[in-house]
Every structure is written in C-alpha cells, then in structure tokens.
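Task: fold both queries, return tokens.
Query 1:
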Amino acid sequence: MKPAQVETLFARLQAANPHPVSELHYANTFELLVAVVLSAQSTDAGVNKATPALFAAAPTPRAMLALGEERVAECIRTLGLYRTKARNLVALSQALVEQHHGSVPATREELEALPGVGRKTANVVLNVAFGQPTLAVDTHVLRVATRLGLARGKTPLQVETELLRLVPAAYAQHAHHWLILHGRYVCKARRPECWRCALSDLCPYRPKTAPPR
C-alpha cells in the first residue's frame, strides 16, 4: 500500500472514531495490567464479566497477594487457563511489591520481566496507561493488516515492525486500537462486512462480501 493510501486509511479510521479506548474495564494501571493478562485467549467481554469481583477484592498488588492464588482462581474461573492466569497474577503482584514498590513500571523491559506479561501485554499497557505509541498485534490486527496489504509478516513481531514503519506519526498513538476495533466489528474473521467498510476501496481483499438478504 502506498504512503498516500496509508494516510487516507488512518484518516478515515480517525474520522469514524477520533478517541478510541480499550474495551477492557479498569480503574487504575494495575487493574489494566491484570485485565490485559487475563485477555490472553479470552474475549474482552469475558474478561469484563470476570473482573468486577476480582477488582473489588484486589484492586492493588498487595491486595492481590493477600487474596492468594486459590481465591483469585475462583474469581476468574470462567476464563480459559484460569489456574495458570491466577498463578501469574499472584506472582506478578509479588514482583510489583518487591521490585517496584507496588507500582506498575513504565518500561518494556520491566513489564516483560513480570510473570505472565509478554510483548503484546506490555505494548497495551505502555500505550493505554503511559501514552506511548506502541502497536500491540493480536489476531484482529494481524488479520486486518494482512487483508489490507499493510503488512506481510508471518509473526506478530514482524507485523508490528512493519506497521510501526508504515503508520504516519500523527496516527501512531491510536493505530492499534483502530485496527483492533475494525477487526472486531467490521473486518471479521469468518465473514468480513465489506459492504459497510469505510476502507473497502483501499482493500485488495477478494471477493468482497455483500450485505445479508
């Protein structure tokens, strides 16, 4: 895709949603980190159903430690891999208390050193909580970037690298949210809704889908 087309693409996404936000529910940076960790192999909607009870009991790392692995697991048992996630949440809470005075760090290296935190999770926290122009690549971003011809990488890191090179600076802060939301609600995996896509004329994906009858 040519630079002028990339500019047009993100200008349209911005016009449709000038101030995109995460669909995960949270009240502080620690809760955001926890919610993103829980979102691995789970939907945001599913996470949002599981976290109210958890956050009511454990809104801070110290409170999460006090709650303990078994009680954390009970709160999130509706989510996939809930026992592994409970173990990671307690372990990362302990690391935050012991190494960061109970605060969530603002660097990639420190975030990725926490149990259960990978590059995608770190990217989301850095972007949403700390305003850094990172680009978290999930299945939605991977699919949309490939269909649009924005990136041809085979791995999330390759796609992230290509997108960071292509996305104009003016759109870098919100690019991953726009791509995620576009993939979640329009450019769906099984049947993209091309008939209502604002990017249809820029997209090489074929065949274009027609509206349902």
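Query 1 returned. Query 2:
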Amino acid sequence: MNRAKRQQIFERFRAANPSPTTELQYGNPFQLLVAVILSAQSTDVGVNKATRALFRKVKTPKAMLNLGEAGLKKHIKTIGLFNTKASNIIKTCSILVEQHNGKVPEDRAALEALPGVGRKTANVVLNTAFGHPTIAVDTHIFRVSNRTGIAPGKNVTEVEKRLLRLVPEEFLKDAHHWLILHGRYTCIARKPHCQSCTIADLCEYKHKNIE
C-alpha cells in the first residue's frame, strides 16, 4: 500500500469520527489502568458492567487497597481470570502508592513494571490517558493492518513498529482507536462488512465480501 492511500484511509476515518476514544468507561488515569488490566481476554462491555459500581466507590489506588482483594473480587467476578487480575491490581496499587505518590506514571518502563501491565496495556494508558502517539496492537488492529494492507506484519510487535512508521504523523494519536473500532464493527473476523466500509475502495484485501 502506498503513502497516498494510507493518507486517504485515515482522512476518511477522521471525517467519520473526529474524536475517537476507548469504549472502556473510566473517570481518571487510575480507573483507566484498572479497566485495561481487566479487559485482557474480556470484552469492553463486560468490563464496563463490572466497573460501574466499583468505580463509584474506588477512584484512587489507596481506595482500592482499602477495598482489598476480596472486596475487589466481588465486583469483578463476572470477568475472565478475575482471581489473577484482582491479585495484580492490588499489587499494582501498592506500587502506585509506595513509588508513585498514588499517581499513574506517564512512563512506559514504569508502567510495564506494574503487575498485569504489558506493552499493550502501557500503550493504551499512554495514548488514552496522556495523549502519546502510541498504538496498542490487539487482535482487531492486527487483523485490520494485515487484511487491508495498511501495515502487514507477522506478529503484533512487527505490526506496531510498521504502523508507527507508516501512519502519517497527523493521525498517529488517534490511529489506535480508529483501527480498533474499524476491526470491532466493520472489518470483523469472519465476514467483514465490506459493503458498508468507508475504505473498501482503498483496502487491498483480495477477498472482499461485496455481493
């Protein structure tokens, strides 16, 4: 795919959705961090259901520590791997209180040092909470990047590096959200909705679902 095509694709994404953001519901960077940890191998819809009552009570790492691991588990028991996630969140809150004055660090290395936080989670927090031009490659972004030809790669790291290099700079901050939403609702895994796709004529997928 050439540069002009990529430019057009992201111009269309921007025209359709000028201010994209995550579908996770949160009130501050700490709540976003918790929501993203919970969202691993879970849907945003499921996470939002579980965190609605939790986030009314808990707005800081200290409040989460006061709630305790058992209390947290009661709120998130509908989410997959909730035992491991609860343990990681409590450990993370201890580190945030002890090492970061209860604040979420705006730093990749510090974020990735937190239990339950990998590169993808760090990228989401840096992008969504702090406005960094990072891209967290999940299954949706990996599929869209490869299928459309925007930034093909064999693994998530390769796709992330190519996206950061190939997406025009003016779109980098929002590219993460546009690509996820496109993969979640239009360029879906089994049968993409090519007929209603805003970039169908620019996409380089060979097996377009157009009747």
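Both queries returned. Flag for query 2: Residues 42 and 79 are 7 Å apart (CA to CA).
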